[in-house]
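User: Continuing from earlier, I have the next pair ready.

Assistant: Great, send them over.

User: Here they are, in order.

Assistant: Folding the first of the pair now:
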Amino acid sequence: MALGIERDTVGDIVCQDNNATMVCLPELSSYIVENLNKAGRVGVNLSIIQLDDLNTNQESLTVKTDTVASLRLDAVLSAAFGLSRTKSAELIEAERVNLDHQPCMQTAKELCEGALLSVRGLGRAKLLEVGGVSKKGRSFIRIGLYGR
């Protein structure tokens, strides 16, 4: 964007139809609206909306059922995208993971139903349901994957 702002102050960019919505810190929103005139060679019109007004209805979800040892971010991320927990932790530490449109660098962050995960380069997933517990103490989860 060439606006001189740090990457960690900007969250997800949600694209739908001919619109894109960028999630950022509230104190930066007016600065971005005043100074961002173009995206590449294309002129842009910006306005400020509240996070509650963000329409995140995207294409249909592919539902996946799995079990995790705990509802930690790294465990759910590895179940959603078929990664090892070590690789998931590396992605989190590399600041490539957003939780509910905000950057999250805590591998041990506990998730709850409805949590929206996005990983730059891999896609987006939503924790749809947390079910019962298996005989081995693992939690059953249902995950929705966008665009798969």
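And the other member of the pair:
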Amino acid sequence: MVKSLSLNVPLSPAAWRSLKAGDIVSLNGTIVTGRDRVHKYLVEQKPRKEDIPFDLNGAVLYHCGPVMKKTEEGYTAVAAGPTTSMRVEMYEAAVIREYGIRGIIGKGGMGTGTLEALQQTGSVYFQTVGGAAAYLADRIKKTLNVWKLDEFGPTEAMWLFEIEDFPVIVTMDSHGTNLHREIEKQSFERFSELIGSKQ
């Protein structure tokens, strides 16, 4: 049964396991961002966890390269739409297992390696809205910290954000369900039926 939930992260292991593909979720709390360079650095350079200025264990990682504006008070997100998640498929399973990430947010879904890691660790993948970068930036209420800003630049750095009512849908869960692949399969079967009916 699909649920509509408002959740405050971090969550307990049991709460992560209870999420099912199709659940509509409004996230509150904190998330970190990470795209290609952060993933590559985490997996290949293996930084000590104490060298990362915030705790990734139990965190939600957002595949996002935000557009940031520097103000007198610090940094503010101007645009924060999701990046295509398959870009980091080769790294994601290791990041989940080694750093304790429990939620991934992105668009388009991910592959079998990530799905296996989700099952093993009790984690989930969330799809968020593409093409709504300004709206999603408005869900970011505060910039709390940043890592690798000087080295990677603002788009590829890892930001720690405080969020409120951030809209996501569980599309890959810890029970082996991948809605992205199921929809692809159903679409292909329907397409084959339509083509066959015209021959």
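Worth noting for the second one:
The two ends are 39 Å apart (CA to CA). The chain has one domain: 4-197.
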